[in-house]
Amino acid sequence: MAKSKSSQRELKLVWQAQLAEYITSIACANDGRTVVASSAAGEVAYWENQQLTMLLDAHGASVDSLSFDASSRYLAAGGQMGDVRVWDCGNGSPELLLSLAHKSIWVDSIAWHPHAPYLAFATGRFVQIWDIAKRELITTLDFDLSTVFDLAWHPAGTHLAVAGNLGARIWQSNDWDEEPEYLPANNALKHLAWSIGGDFLAGATLDRCLVISAIEDFSSTWTMRGFPARIQQLAWIDKSQPTVAAISAEMLVSCAYADGTWQAMPLEFHRDFITTMSIHPKFPLIATASVDGEIAIWEPEMGVIGSFNDSNVEFTRINWHSNDRMLVTGNDRGEVKIWG
Amino acid sequence: MNTLDNLPTSTVPVTVLTGYLGAGKTTLLNHILTYEHGKKVAVIVNEFGEVGIDNQLVVSTDEEIFEMNNGCICCTVRGDLVRIIGNLMRRRDKFDHLVIETTGLADPAPVIQTFFVDEDVQLETRLDAVVTVVDAKHIQLHWDADEAQEQIAFADRILINKTDLVTPAELEELEKKIRNMNAIAKIYRTQNAVVDMDTILGVGGFDLNNALTIDPDFLGEEAHQHDESVGSIALVAPGAMNSQKLEAWLGELLPTQGQNIFRMKGILNIQGQDRRFVLQGVHMLMDAKPDREWRAGEERKNELVFIGRDLDEAKLRKDFNKCLVASGKGFG
């Protein structure tokens, strides 16, 4: 059983479920009542009111991305089966609304518009954008750089950024036919993230660099090199100074904007590779989890304020629950756990 | 402390199949899958062909070439493989073997370099061998194509397939020509791509611990006729090498000539060292380390093989010899 070293309070295991393979994705609905998780065996598990429903059973092909729309009514899943499935969770039990098949394409990037029920997902070198309420294709974007690695909507919904080889293309959502803007990188961008206010766009390259540009001019980039390993995840923290967090090897690196430049601060605590992080929905807190079962809660300026180890398992996912005092974790043995 | 190095390695071996369209790659792939029956094999192909075995994971992909720049070393990797392999290898029930079938027109270098430079791919997999299937008859139509020569030059194992379609004399001629291009690969003559699986699986072609073997026939020939621009150069010399001179030479050679050097392998005797020094390279990338100790009575010598295009044999030989410690003078 987990023991907390935190002086504040102990996190206890409140619920646990077992899936067949490593946990690829976890999503929490806004109302705090629903948690969903997907696995590399293709399962999608839906947990609500103490009850577990399997929306998809193990079928061999990994489900890699899982996400609720802004209203938490719609749940989308994509993966190696090539299908994008959307469930309507608005009337009690979830009902499959839409299933879009793409033969022999892995759909590993899906992203909901920040307030409308618009779903963007990548199929190879193309991005499809659907109005899920109307079940209508809005547009298909032709991404010329490579297969799509990541998608990110601007927090106001005004732009969609698409990452791939040599940078990102940024489309404006009021005119999809307009030529996209370009954020250059000298390598492929694996992850993308907009700042909370939408003023900055950050990208992580395959060769251990962090690239940031301001929305006024994507062509002018600030690059930080020398991360100890490839950046596994990027996320912005809601602070007065724009701050982006990156996980790389055992390190959590926080980069804050001050006096016209970016200052990077490496934070150390984990003894082995960090695989996943999650930013608290309300407070500037970061939860990280590593391959040796360690979970840490960070306050970016103070460092680690609490930690515990869960039987040395390799964590694959960590998410703050929308009920802001709980954490949801997934590991390589297929265990989903809620801690509160 | 992180003691990753002490953990038993559980990396998955990778076989790369190259060869022109129609040479027999898919036939060989099906032989491998039959042989590996009961094991979990993942196959990455460029287009779904007649891969005829159920229950194996077949992933189709479009070749995507990404450039990686790392200081003065630049190389290309296959972006699609980076994405797919990273994703595949996270599974708990990991694969026992990964086979990558390239298109007939593929340059093998980005595939190989992916396994040298991509950190996530390196963590989970190890490149076992590049196996090239050559159509004994139709290869004659393709000599002008760079890809046909490169696929032979990069190989650890070469299958001269469809031997029934040519005369013994033609076959002899072809094997000699292939041998001149690639002096380190093992060559097999096959029909219907039938070959003993032990000869193409578990090869360790990129394992530095495996000794370099240069075909004695290649070394025995006095002059090599390089009627194609791609060829092998074997440099052999007794004595010891000065490590500073060697480092300076390779440090200059690889960034400037790396584009033309496809593969390089060597075992060297470094002055003052009791252990053999082994190295290998692909284009500008190089791996090197001290190997086992020289055995008592073993002749200490230096062997270095370059496979590449338009290599200047005389200059390579001269620069190689300059690294030797002058005999009788002791410290060079």
UniProtKB/TrEMBL annotation, chain A:
SMART domains from the entry?
A: WD40 (SM00320)
Q: Where are the WD repeats?
A: 56-88, 267-299, 308-340
- Name of the protein: Uncharacterized protein
Keyword entries, A-Z? Repeat, WD repeat
Protein species of origin: Chamaesiphon polymorphus CCALA 037
In terms of Gene3D superfamilies, this protein maps to: YVTN repeat-like/Quinoprotein amine dehydrogenase
User: Which InterPro entries does the record cross-reference, listed alphabetically?
Assistant: Quinoprotein_ADH-like_sf, WD40/YVTN_repeat-like_dom_sf, WD40_rpt
Q: Name one Pfam family in it.
A: WD40
Endpoints of the signal sequence:
none
TrEMBL record, chain B:
Which CDD domains does the entry mention? Answer: CobW-like (cd03112)
What sections of the sequence does the record tag as coiled-coil?
none
Its cellular-component GO annotations read: cytoplasm
Q: Which residue range or ranges hold the CobW C-terminal domain?
A: 230-324
Q: What reactions does this protein catalyze? A: GTP + H2O = GDP + phosphate + H(+)
List GO molecular-function terms, semicolon-separated: hydrolase activity; nucleotide binding
Keywords of the record, alphabetical order, are: Chaperone, Hydrolase, Nucleotide-binding
What InterPro entries does this protein map onto?
A: CobW-likC_sf, CobW-like_C, CobW/HypB/UreG_nucleotide-bd, P-loop_NTPase, Zinc-reg_GTPase_activator
Report which superkingdom the organism of origin falls in: Bacteria
Q: Which family does it belong to?
A: Belongs to the SIMIBI class G3E GTPase family. ZNG1 subfamily.
Protein's UniProt name: Cobalamin biosynthesis protein CobW
Source organism of the structure: Chamaesiphon polymorphus CCALA 037
